[in-house]
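Sample entry (424 residues):
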Amino acid sequence: MTATSLLRFATAGSVDDGKSTLVGRLLFDSKSVLTDQLEAVEHASRSRGQEAPDLALLTDGLRAEREQGITIDVAYRYFATARRRFILADTPGHVQYTRNMVTGASTAELAVVLVDARNGVVEQTRRHLAVTALLRVPHVVLAVNKMDLVGYQESVFAAIADEFTAYADGLGVSGVTAIPVCALAGDNVVVPSGRMAWYGGPTLLEHLESVPVGHDPSGEPTRLPVQYVIRPQTAAHPDYRGYAGQIASGVLSVGAPVTVLPSRLTSVIEAIDTLDGSTDRAWAPQSVTVRLADDLDISRGDLLALGDEGPPVTRDVTATVCHVADRPLKVGDRVLLKHATRTVKAIVREIPSRLTLDDLSQQPAAGELRANDIGRVVVRTAEPLAVDAYADSRRTGSFLLIDPVDGTTLTACMATGTPVDQAG
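Predicted structure, serialized as tokens:
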């Protein structure tokens, strides 16, 4: 691991489980809080009659959050230690803000799910763990908080860890790391606790600093969603035609054959341009401009794939979804589907089932999903799309359903794959 490695992680949990306090403690004890930030928190705490600084105020920045004592928005924090850099998304715990947890965890490599030691695993814990599983977050930490309020008992921690791990196994989440903490006092957050000698594992920060991150992009399918076609048509570049975008996954090389989707046109990469000049090889998540050997009809929203290894082209997309809008999603709804750089008209054909969090069973959805429901949806698009299964690519296997009238995001979707290639 190098000093420049980066970990994106998110926190989640029920209301009053202590997420904001945990994040504040993590920032404070790792000396990642600026002097003026700490002074502002101390002043706000004194004005509320508190003797000690309320570390939750380091992340609860909205006025409504401070007044209500709950997290509403996703608070992003950037900090670093000698071993690693971090981007942290502190997500809300209240059920009506579950949609924000989807936003915060969508790019995370690790999720910290908090549980109040007094309450154990509750419905919102299960919902957050289900969302974590759906988004395929690679690493999960169970932080059993407020251990001081249960006398630092190992048996309480063990029972919660066993129940949480069993539920995670049912969702296909393996390798849960359970850590007993007291965010208010700082036990096992950055500094090892002297009150839980029975625990021999890492502190939360130690685990965050040592968990494996990153991956070899060459092992992933190569995908470049075209964001912009560059045709300067100047005296210096009269015939320049480049296709610009951010590589979603995999590696591009000069001389490699590519297929343009959904048209299935083929060519060979002639050159790869970057802000630093031309290169023979580029990989995710670099932003590049690709020039091809042939002049093809390519526009924004098309997808470049390596050789014939592209995803299936279809107009019927099946997905597991989390509905995030207040108004229900119903069969027959006309929507916009935004996939990578492409947006097309679509209609909701089926909503076959909804996930029951208690036993993880799929129950008939009666043709609709309500806010924070997790279920399955089949969408028919007006134009063919090249969509990966989310299990193969988090970037090109995800999409959004959007209200065509006001642009509101309705549903976050993870494609489950398409059984046949059916562009017609």
